[in-house]
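Design a sequence for this backbone.
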């Protein structure tokens, strides 16, 4: 894994935005189409805002979500709401190329099947996304793959409904989809992530994050999360 420990959260956001933009440009130049999956949460907010100002061939990008909370579309907890506000409403991404998880469907299994069909129509069967951005929970979870829940490890599907965590039931990309990505980007900030970051770097299989491949991964973290792991650049 390529590991970059930067001074603060602002530097992390800037580095991550530049990496996403450059990767998308390279993929589009090579293959004519790029696929990107983004995570929600508080940590990537600044990164997303900065990404909107980068030079990206958005007309040739398809955007996916790593996971989503099963709440109303106007609920502040909905990841798609912040992704729209911070990014997609500010860039020329065609609306039909922003693939939001259909969590409004009453049947979560139907929602998972629908998202799987969309993934496979765009990214192949089984899907291989070009770049997946991931966050890291203090317990070592990533996307909505949680330590105590094995649902999203299912090798037979690309999206899975998982039980409530933090008050919300969710839909998430499964571990096989994350494992297959051509590039993984970890963005980690905060002292509360220090234990989970160590587990990730040790490839600790007791955490969902630690089970993901590291050979195609870039980790960008701030000093408070990663000061004990590497000297600063």
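Sequence:
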């Amino acid at each position: 894994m390529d590991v970059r420990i930067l001074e603060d959260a602002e530097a992390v956001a800037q580095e991550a935005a530049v990496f996403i933009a450059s990767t998308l440009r390279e993929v589009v130049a090579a293959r004519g189409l790029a696929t990107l999956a983004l995570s929600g949460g508080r940590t990537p907010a600044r990164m997303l805002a900065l990404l909107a100002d980068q030079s990206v061939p958005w007309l040739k990008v398809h955007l996916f979500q790593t996971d989503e909370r099963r709440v109303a579309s106007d609920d502040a907890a909905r990841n798609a709401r912040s992704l729209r506000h911070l990014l997609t409403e500010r860039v020329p991404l065609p609306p039909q190329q922003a693939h939001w998880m259909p969590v409004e469907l009453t049947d979560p299994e139907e929602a998972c099947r629908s998202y799987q069909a969309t993934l496979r129509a765009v990214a192949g069967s089984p899907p291989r996304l070009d770049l997946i951005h991931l966050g890291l929970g203090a317990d070592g979870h990533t996307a909505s793959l949680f330590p105590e829940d094995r649902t999203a490890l299912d090798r037979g599907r690309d999206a899975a409904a998982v039980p409530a965590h933090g008050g919300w039931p969710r839909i998430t990309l499964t571990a096989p989809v994350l494992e297959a990505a051509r590039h993984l980007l970890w963005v980690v900030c905060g002292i509360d992530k220090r234990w989970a970051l160590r587990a990730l770097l040790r490839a600790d299989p007791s955490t969902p994050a630690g089970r993901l491949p590291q050979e195609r991964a870039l980790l960008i973290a701030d000093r408070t999360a990663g000061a004990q792991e590497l000297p600063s650049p």
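The chain is about 30% helix and 20% strand.
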